[in-house]
Amino acid sequence: MQSKGQTAAKVIGVILVLALLAGIVAVIYRFTNGFNEDFKTFYVEYDGEQILTTESEMHLVEGNTHRFGVKYTFDTENSEPKDYNVKVIPNAERDFDFTVDGERYLYSKEGDMTAAFGLNKQDTYFELVIPEDFSLQYALQSCYPGQTVVVPSEAENGNAYPYTLVVSSYNESVVYRIDLSVGAEVTGVTLDPEQIIFTGTQE
Amino acid sequence: MSNNELYEHKRSDTVKWVLTLFAFILVGVMLAGIILGWFDKKDELPVEEEQTEQAAVTDGEGNAMDEDIVYPMPEKMSFSAAAFAEPLAQFGEPTGTVTSEQSVDVRIEAYVYPESAANKEVDFSVTWGNAPTHGSEEVTNYLTVTPDSDGSTTATVSCKKAFGDDTIIITVTTREGGYTATCTVTFTGIASGIEITSSTATKKSTSARGEYYELGTSKTYTFDIGLTNAFDDAAGNLSVTEIGGEGNMYFGNGSYNDGGYINFTDMVQKSIGEFADEFITSATISGNALTVKTGSKILENYYSSYGPDEYFITDIYYDRYVIEMNDDWSIKDSSDTFRNQNAQSNAQNIGSCYFYVTVKDGISGLTETVRLWLVSSVNGVALSQTELEF
Is B69 in CB contact (< 8 Å) with chain A? Predict the structure, then answer.
């Protein structure tokens, strides 16, 4: 016959095991994007938030330097830093032509636009330096220095996220694609109309 | 097994349980440490450069605004009745009432500044205004705001039912910076439809006169004025704007000859609206009730006045409605034919004549006209014989 102490010990033990299992499940859940993706052994951090989904969107404010941390999940402080890959490529939801010294190019075929983002790559983080008045014109001009680049004025239309930041682990087993929009910092909002009067009338 | 051995066995079990428990705690602490270690890694990130101070909120004209204060919009805007024509088209029925599955919808849009802002995503929320009488209910039972997509600056405001004198506040908040703007929503029941009905008068319809109510002479009738809108909640300010008549008929000065037949002189065509107030003697409104009183004559028996002729032989009925002359003369001349043409015209056209009362709602501006026609009221009854003897 079990004593009260034995029973309590068993109950506590079961609770601990369950808590342990719950903790493990929570960690797996988080690093698999809700069990929808493979377990992430590599991830990106921005502004204190871990990016663990392979495809996401982000707004970058121009005139700022944006720092992204890169982490290998099972690495410790003493681990040898592993390399990673980072680049910015076009994300043409609505493609357009632009010209370089009069020669036409298709935006979606533009390979690497990283030069426009002032990439500063370090072992455990990288930075994107976005100048003031950043635009598609600026970005493409940066890719063709010394040449005359002409981007149509309507190029921005329909392209809410014109760029994609691609960050991958050293062996490219984990790849994050972050669609980027670049613009000014929000300074206010208004609502139109300010007043609505529902009358129930129809004519 | 001796008692001593049994005691030793129990003590051994206790030790095993304590050690198991200890092992679990140890494993738990280790795993917790690992987990915490993972999540704490983000703290090792180099601190991001201090961001530049946010500019003050600006309105559409660039005037500075404090982010902690909810500002009214630079310009006010209200939706006229016409603005609801399109949204209400979804109801199908022209005077449809909003059901639990339907709503009156209005589009609103938030403008995030500056125009070149990178993150224009916003969130909409809905709350009751001050001291709402419907505050015990969820505001979303009355009004919802649905963005076109997550973070969209455009949204649909759906009013599901009337909320009286309460005020509902729509707030839009930018996801970056947390700036807010508001839109005040009120309800004012304005009629979109007006209808006049009566349970005391007889409603009839002919192709010539259309729908009309048949009224007896020298009587009082009550009509109900119904104001409707999509929410079945409309206030009104009703008044009678016109009592009139539609139709042109011949009137003349009539006198009866020896044979008891009427002759007409000075016949002219007049609009019956000129003396409509002698048929519809009053039309008044109290609340949503229209009270109509009728005169003592029907049109076919109308005359304005009468008096003896210059020879005091017979009476002349002035402005008498012209009816066909059925005299006993054996020879009819052309003037007879002419006079009877006027009577025949009256007989042919009286079916399309009517009197009317027009009612107006001062709030919505809607008007409604009810057509009326007078017939002789029953004013007595008699039997062919008052006494029978068998």
Answer: no
One domain, residues A6 and A59: no
User: Which residues in chain A have their CB less than 8 angstroms from residue B116's CB?
Assistant: 62, 183-184
* Domains identified in chain A, total number: 2
Residues B192-239: tens digit of each pLDDT: 899 999 999 999 999 999 999 999 999 999 999 999 887 778 888 899
Q: Which residue of A has its CA nearest to B176?
A: A186
* Residue A199 maps to a domain: no
Alpha-carbon gap, residue B324 to B347, rounded angstroms: 9
Instruction: Say if A193 falls within a structural domain.
Output: no
**Are A19 and A69 contained in the same domain?**
no
Does residue A193 have a cis peptide bond before it, meaning omega lies within 30 degrees of 0? yes
In chain B, the residue whose alpha carbon lies closest to the alpha carbon of A18 is: B28
Residue A164 within any structural domain of the chain: yes
Judged by a CB distance cut-off of 8 A, whether residue B82 touches chain A is yes
Radius of gyration of chain B (CA): 42
Closest CA to B302 of B340, B281, B276: B276
Torsions phi, psi of B233, nearest 5?
-145, 90
Find the CB nearest B49 among A62, A65, A196. Answer: A65
Q: Are residues A14 and A58 in the same domain?
A: no
Domain that holds residue A176: 40-183
Percent of chain B topping pLDDT 90: 48
- Determine, for residues A201 and B24 on separate chains, whether the beta-carbon distance falls below 8 Å: no
In chain B, the domains with their CATH numbers are 57-186 (2.60.40), 193-375 (no CATH)
- Chain A residue with CA closest to B90: the answer is A202
Average pLDDT over residues A117-127: 94
In this structure, are A27 and A48 located in the same domain?
A: no
Q: Do B184 and A67 touch (CB under 8 A)?
A: no
For B56-87, give one letter per residue: b (16+ CB within 10 A) or e.
Answer: ebbbeeeeebebeeebebeeeeebebebbeeb
B279-292 pLDDT tens trace: 999 999 999 999 99
CA B81 to chain A, closest CA, distance in angstroms equals 5
